[in-house]
Design goal:
The longest helix is centred in the middle third of the chain and has 15 residues, at 92-106. The chain has 2 domains: 2-109, Gcn5-related N-acetyltransferase (GNAT) (Aminopeptidase, 3-Layer(aba) Sandwich), CATH 3.40.630; 141-272, Aminopeptidase, CATH 3.40.630. The chain has helices at residues 11-21, 33-42, 92-106, 121-129, 164-168, 181-186, 229-239, 256-264, and strands at residues 2-5, 51-55, 58-70, 73-83, 111-117, 133-144, 156-159, 191-198, 201-209, 214-215, 217-220, 245-253, 268-279. The two termini are 31 Å apart. The strands form 2 sheets. Strands 1-2-3-4-5-13-6-12-10 form a 9-stranded mixed sheet. The chain has a 4-stranded antiparallel sheet with strand order 7-8-9-11. By secondary structure, it is α+β, with helices and mostly antiparallel strands. It has 8 helices and 13 strands.
Length: 282
C-alpha cells in the first residue's frame, strides 16, 4: 500500500473513491459529482492536507481535510474518511490517520474536528483511542417537501448577503463546520437568504440550499421569538428549493426550543451525531 497526499488527484477520482467507500454507509451518500464538488468547496477541502491510500494506482482509502481559522485557532476538519470495501481491517485507516496527524502537526494546526453517527460505536471508540473527545451532540431533522404546510404571518424577503455580525447575535449555539458562515460564504451562489423585518429591523433570518433543501441556519432574535417569525421564514425557504426533502442539520443538543419548533411542524429526527475534537500540539 502506498500513502501520499492528494494534491495530484483530480476531483473525479476523489468522487469515485468516495462513492465506493460510502456505498454501504448507514446514511445514503450517493452524491452526484456536482454535489460532491460543491461539498468540497463549501467545507474547505485542502488537498495537500488530505491523505490517500493507494493499491497500485487505485485510491482505496482517504482522509479529506478542510482547513480554516475557527475562533482564532487554525482548525482542521475531517470532511470524509473512508476505506473501500475489500480493503478494510488491514490497518489502512490507522496509517492514514498517522500520516494526517504528521501533516497537521508540522503545519501548526491547533485542533482537529470531525462528526460521527452516534450509532457508529466502533468508530467512536476508534476516535477516542486516537485522542478525540466528544464535544457536543447534534440532531438532524427532515420532512417531505409536500408534507410541510406553513402559514406565513409576516412578509419574508430575500436578500443578497447576510450580515454575519448581526446574525451571530441571534444564535443559541455555534453552527457546525458545514453550517458555518465560512461554509455558506464559500459557495454563496448556492444559497437563498431570507429575512423578516419588524419596523424595519431584521428580526430573524434563514438560509437554504436551493438544490439540496438543506437549511444550514435559521435563527430569530430573542426579543422576537414565539411570534411566528421562524415559520414565516421557513415558508419562504420552502418555496425556494426544488428538493424532495427539507433538512435542518446539526441542531446542538439540548436545544428544546428549536427541536420543539421543528417537531411541531412535522419534522422527524432521522439521525444524530457527535462532534468530536482532538487538540493538537498540546
Amino acid at each position: 500500500m502506498i500513502y501520499h497526499t492528494l494534491e495530484q488527484i483530480n476531483l473525479r477520482s476523489l468522487h469515485d473513491a468516495f462513492l465506493l467507500a460510502f456505498s454501504d454507509y448507514q446514511v445514503p451518500m450517493s452524491l452526484s459529482f456536482t454535489d460532491f464538488e460543491r461539498m468540497m468547496r463549501g467545507r474547505g477541502l485542502v488537498s495537500k492536507f488530505s491523505v490517500g491510500a493507494f493499491d497500485g494506482e487505485k485510491l482505496v482509502g482517504f482522509s479529506l481535510t478542510g482547513l480554516r481559522l475557527q475562533n482564532g485557532f487554525l482548525t482542521a476538519y475531517d470532511i470524509a474518511t473512508g476505506i473501500a470495501p475489500g480493503f478494510r481491517r488491514q490497518g489502512i485507516s490507522g496509517e492514514v490517520f498517522k500520516r494526517e496527524m504528521a501533516i497537521l502537526k508540522s503545519n501548526h494546526v491547533v485542533q482537529y474536528l470531525l462528526e460521527v453517527l452516534k450509532e457508529n460505536v466502533p468508530a467512536i471508540r476508534l476516535y477516542q483511542r486516537q485522542g478525540f473527545q466528544i464535544q457536543r451532540g447534534f440532531s438532524c431533522f427532515q420532512i417531505d417537501h409536500r408534507r410541510l404546510t406553513l402559514r406565513s404571518q409576516y412578509q419574508a424577503e430575500k436578500i443578497a448577503v447576510i450580515n454575519w455580525g448581526q446574525a451571530k447575535a441571534f444564535w443559541d449555539f455555534e453552527p457546525s463546520w458545514q453550517n458555518s458562515a465560512a461554509s455558506v460564504s464559500a459557495t454563496p451562489e448556492e444559497f437563498v437568504n431570507v429575512v423578516v423585518r419588524i419596523h424595519g429591523e431584521i428580526a430573524g433570518y434563514g438560509i437554504s440550499d436551493s438544490q439540496t433543501g438543506n437549511i444550514p441556519q435559521l435563527a430569530v432574535s430573542p426579543q422576537f421569538r414565539r411570534l411566528g417569525i421562524g415559520t414565516s421564514i421557513l415558508a419562504e425557504l420552502k418555496t425556494s428549493t426544488v428538493a424532495e426533502r427539507i433538512r435542518v442539520l446539526n441542531i446542538e443538543e439540548p436545544n428544546d426550543t428549536v427541536i420543539k419548533f421543528l417537531t411541531v411542524l412535522g419534522f422527524e429526527n432521522y439521525v444524530s451525531q457527535f462532534e468530536m475534537i482532538l487538540h493538537i500540539n498540546d
